[in-house]
Design goal:
The protein is 39% helix and 23% strand. It is α/β, with parallel strands linked by helices. It has 2 domains: 98 residues, Rossmann fold (3-Layer(aba) Sandwich), CATH 3.40.50; 65 residues, no CATH class.
Length: 187
């Protein structure tokens, strides 16, 4: 059995997709959800699927890193999936879970990655630069924003009529389809 912790800061659509995808899979157990936002939609979704939810502030993540790692190890967490988690993971996490922290990014890295490049900021940059394609990158997390080894990339095409909203929809569809499949390949 592979135990997963999902870290999310927002609405939790990727987390909910993973709950549904792996609900009857005997190989995977999503043990808990960690969020840094007490108003995040992921909390309600996790509770609906009877998932343990842990609220961790940015300060706690950085000041109590060792205690949080101990907790995750006690829970026997094999993989951490960052599904819209907007805090940078402390280096101690990366050392404690080498090649076991997975991030999903809404562009074809290395383009449009790095600090401050998330969500609509990425889509705005892609459209402003008149790109003809974008996509998602699922990658391992290392010490640098969006620089870890790539696990999977999937692309979509853009046309001159695409907006931030239409591109976001295309990216979201790719995330829904391919994040669970990427996790399956790893286990």
């Amino acid at each position: 059995m592979t135990n997963i912790a999902i870290f999310a800061s927002g609405g939790g659509t990727n987390a909910e997709n993973l709950f549904k995808y792996f609900i009857n899979d005997k190989r995977v157990k999503i043990k808990l959800v960690v969020t840094n936002n007490d108003k995040a939609g992921v909390i309600e979704k996790a509770e609906r699927y009877k998932k343990n939810v842990q609220l961790i502030s940015k300060t706690a993540l950085n000041e109590y890193t060792d205690k949080i790692i101990e907790f995750l190890e006690a829970e026997k967490i094999d993989f951490i999936v960052l599904a819209g988690f907007l805090l940078k993971m402390p280096e101690a996490f990366i050392k404690a879970f080498p090649n076991r922290i997975i991030n999903i990014h809404p562009s074809l890295l290395p383009k449009y990655g790095g600090k401050g490049m998330y969500g609509s900021f990425v889509h705005e940059a892609v459209i402003a630069n008149k790109e003809t394609k974008s996509g998602i990158t699922i990658h391992f997390v290392n010490e640098e924003y969006d620089k870890g080894e790539i696990i999977l990339q999937k692309e979509c095409t853009l046309d001159e009529n695409d907006t931030v909203e239409t591109l976001a929809k295309k990216i979201h569809e790719l995330e829904m389809e391919f994040l669970p499949k990427a996790i399956e390949t790893l286990i």
